[in-house]
Amino acid sequence: MFRLRAVTGSRYLRRFLHGGAANRDHVLEQLGICSGEDQVLEVVGKNKAKLTVNHVGCAIGMLWHFQKEKPQMLRTVEFIKSHPEFLTLRVLAENKIELMDDVMLVDMLYNVLRLNVEPSDSLAQQLVSEAWLRLYRFPMPSLSKFAVCLSDQHLQHSPPMGQITDILNQKLSSIDDARILTTLMVSVSSLVSPHLRDKLINKADHLLDTMDPSHYNNPRRMVQFLRNIKYSYRPLLEKCNHILLRNVPHLNAENISIIMGLYQSIQFNNCDFRLAAKQRLMELVDSSADPFSFTKLFVALGPMAGEDTKESCESATLHRMLYLVSPPSGNSSYSHNVTLSLYRIASVVHKNLHVYKPMEIARITQALILLHYQSPELFTKLRNILVQFLLNSVYPYEVTMLTRVLSMLPSPRLDEGVVSRVEAVLPQCNLNDLNTFAMAVAKWVRNDPSYRHSTPSKYVRLLQTLNRCGHERLRKADRLDLVLEELKYMSGEWFEEMLLEETMVTLQRLEDQISWTNVPEMALFLTRTNHLCTPLMDRIASVAMENINKIHYSATYATLLPFAVLNYDPPGVDELFDICIQPTCIVRLPPGSFDPHLLVLLAYALAVADCFPEDLVREIFNVNFLAKLDSQLETLPDALNKRIRLRLMELNRAVCLECPESQVPWFHERYCLQLQKKGDPVQQQIHKMLGEVLGGINCARVALLTTYFYTVDFECVLDRHHQAVAYSEQSQLQISEDGKVRWGSDSVGKDRSEVPPGAQRVAVDFLDSKSFCKNSRHMKGEAMMRKRHLEILGYHVVQIPHFEWNSMELSTQDAWKEYLRKKIFTGLP
């Protein structure tokens, strides 16, 4: 009786068990006491002749109900799918489609897809066709479920989905269920117009205030919608994050992993959520016994964990994964052998290659390569499977992924079939995919044995097609937002050499579309490419100043960055910085509004531009802030962690030099000692030339560390008559065993005061291409800040640009020496 009550509590039976004793349905009663799939199928087998449309709907609903209650690894979908009685249910369902009411029709489609019935199966196709006919009369819950079914079948751009988008637009004001709304938002995301996008965001924002905050999947789907439409709308993101943060104690590893993935793809970093997620994942480590769920936990925790946590997780992960592959028999010490565990896991992969889908094979191959797994036999099989998938694929994104992974595998020659398939799909690809193909072709060219003699024609043809497709896509582009989205992750030689100039032409052609919503993306692109385009910079400045109240304060850093980095002052530059900084004033923002690392990056960009807001400096160089920053840095990827620490040091140095009144202490000496660069062999040649110019090798010092740890390429001291002063023997150049350049004095900058009265210290700095904008000889902001700081330290700074030093005019030793003489002695006070 208890079992009957428990099962009949499901809506699949509640819809049918509503009659009295006179209307008893014995088949439904039998289904009601079933406790598993096999019993449901047994009831179906015994009552084939009696099954009505209600029985069929109830039975298929119960089969999926039992499956979804189980962990993923314990589900038996394949057993059900191949069972003869399930085939009976499918045939009966297809014959009774017209008898199904609207709710049952959509439920039937949803359930059979969950039970792995192929979208190409006649039952699924008939259900979709019938649902399409009834679309405009569906209740909203059924409409949202049908939209999910279409998405599951990759029909996001189909006519039915277009009609669902139209219905959503018409009935949006009547939707008061956040679950229904967010499900529809995700499903139709590829079809929404900017106008409907804004309406959906406003409605979602309203429902977040009225919904039960424990329903964390609603804000998760809202973030997913923003990710799908590639629109980082910060007010809604922060409201969603606030609800998700409250629910962290109830999230499992998979939920956290999904949310973190969404945040990463939309470039949304929140310190409080990362710290709370890390704490929750740490709590789940010991309680997670399921190897599959633990693997998800490890993947989510790995990037955020410190070394101790990583080591303990790796040990636990190996134990669980080995248990999954081959349960240990008594002695489990082998579970800590990384190599053995990797080979065991690869063995399981090897045996199951036939069941994996294209993207899964691609990810498995990539993982094995990154783990340095050694097995020519397995990699040969993987390569053959990847090639076969690629030849059969019709999806550009899939061909791109498969090609990228194929290029990582060693191969003496590239199949002509692969070249033809790639070439055929190129016209359908966006700029980012074209860039991926270009990098893959570059690898193939380098690895091809015939490359030593000449570039094979098949690669030349591919590169020509790539160039043509890239230029055509840019010339045909008419929406700035789409162009910026495709450019977001573009990098590499092919892009810079073949497309960058055309890209700048396109961006200037679409200049009128620059608005407050895309100003940050445009600014970041110009910064990343180091390309100084004054018309675009002026337009960014104008739009930012006119719309500062609409631009989210977190976008201030991105907006100001190119002006600081590229050292460009647009008309009204002071007004631009004042207006942009005002909304970020620490005293006006709620606590925690700015992530610590973002505040450091913002302050550094302002420092490069010689701007030091007092409240910002005071906030950052505060013990509590630095402690929170330290905690956050532990959760960030290593590369970002190192970058933030470097920027904090450079900011600390800038404040000490340019704002001594702030009384901020210099606390990076130990950090800087660890960063000292090794000596450069080229310096010896230049050092010798400087010695000849100045009157002796002991008149110049090389790679000198100043106070606050700037490394000056060469230093000399000139007396009041502009004659070089020789350094004492004790301070001559020494090169330690580790290759680092040192002088007789161990203290950094200790002998700086030991110059004759009236003498002048001269710093000779060689500037490489990184110190200049790519498309001009305009010096960037960091080189200007370095010059400013060295002058504060008492130097006359002589900067030697790479394009002058390496020019044709300076092709002899005498020409170089004469150049150095003029640069050092001209312009001295």
Automatic annotation (TrEMBL):
Q: Does the keyword NAD apply?
A: no
- Signal peptide positions are none
Limits of the RAP domain: 762-822
Task: Quote one Gene Ontology molecular function term.
Answer: RNA binding
Question: What GO terms in the biological process aspect are recorded for it?
Answer: mitochondrial RNA processing; regulation of mitochondrial mRNA stability
Q: Which domain of life does the UniProt lineage start with?
A: Eukaryota
Q: InterPro entries, from UniProt?
A: FAST_2, FAST_kinase, FAST_Leu-rich, RAP
Instruction: Tell me the compartments it is located in.
Output: Mitochondrion
Any single Gene Ontology cellular-component annotation:
mitochondrial matrix
Keywords in UniProt for this one?
A: Mitochondrion
Main location (coarse class): mitochondrion
Q: Which PANTHER family match?
A: FAST KINASE DOMAIN-CONTAINING PROTEIN 1, MITOCHONDRIAL, FAST LEU-RICH DOMAIN-CONTAINING
Q: What is this protein called?
A: FAST kinase domains 1
